Amino acid sequence: MSPSSPVTRDNERAKYIEAYTTTRYGAKPGRAKLVRSPELDLIEPNSTYLDVSCGRGEAIKQVLSLNRNVTVRGTELVPALCNDFVQNAELPELTNVAPADYVSCYEVLEHLPTHNVLPALDRLFELSRKMLVISTNDMPSMAKPLSGPDLPLHLSRFPQRPPSSPLNRRQ
Q1: What are phi and psi of 83, to 5 degrees?
Q2: Which of 9, 38, 80, 154 is least surrounded by CB atoms within 10 angstroms?
Q3: Whole-angstrom Cα distance, residue 49 to residue 99?
Q4: Is 116 helix (H, G, I), strand (E, B) or coil?
Q5: What is the mean pLDDT of residues 43-68?
Q6: Cβ within 8 Å of residue 164, ≥6 positions away
Q7: Is 8 a residue whose pLDDT tops 60?
Q8: For residue 146, with 0-12 CB atoms within 10 Å meaning exposed, 13-18 middle and 19 or more buried, which class applies?
Q9: 3-state secondary structure of 130
C-alpha cells in the first residue's frame, strides 16, 4: 500500500495536539463527539475495556455508566487528554499497552497514513481478547474545520463495504 496523503505522522500528530488544546476542536466543556455505541452495552461485568485513541473519553464514560465493575483504560496521542487511566500511546505501535477483554477504536483509522492502517489493525486484534469494535468516518476530507487546503482531515479513505480478505487473514 502506498500512502494516500503526503501529510506525515508528525504533521498529523501536531494538528491534533493543537486542536485538542484550543477551543477550535476539543476543549469545549461538555462537547460530545461520540453517539452512544450499542456495542459497548455488550461488555460483561468484571471485565476489562480499552478505548484506543479515546479523545475526551466519551466511550469510557459510557462503559462506566453501565455500573458493571469494568476496569477501564484508554490511550491517546494528545498529552493534555491523558490522566490516571488514559496513557499516552499512539497507533499503530501502542507501546506498553496491555490487552483487554473489550477494545474499541472509534473514528481513528482514517486519520492514519494508509500504510499504517493494516499494522494498526494487527495491533488492535492483538490487544482484544473478546471483542473489538472499530468505526471509521468516510466523510469528505474538507468537511471539518481542522482541514485546510493543504491539510486533509482524513488521510485514508475506506469504501462503504471494505474488502474482508485483510480482516479474514487475522482470525
Answers
A1: -155, -155
A2: 38
A3: 9
A4: helix
A5: 94
A6: none
A7: yes
A8: middle
A9: strand
Look at phi and psi of residue 58 and say left if phi exceeds 0, alpha if psi is from -120 to 50, else beta.
alpha
d(CA 90, CA 77): 5
pLDDT, tens digit (0-9, with 9 covering 90-100), for 102-137 = 999 998 988 888 888 899 999 999 999 999 999 887
pLDDT-wise least confident of 25-29, 103-107, 142-146: 142-146
Grid cell listed for 13: 500528530
Residue 160 scores a pLDDT above 70: no
Handedness of CA 131, 25, 13, 116 (dihedral sign): positive
43: left (phi over 0), alpha (psi -120 to 50) or beta: beta
The Cα–Cα gap between 101 and 2 comes to: 33
Looking at this protein, which amino acid is placed at residue 101? D
Contact 45, 68 (CB under 8 A): yes
- What is the reported pTM? 0.79
Which three cell numbers mark 34?
Answer: 461520540
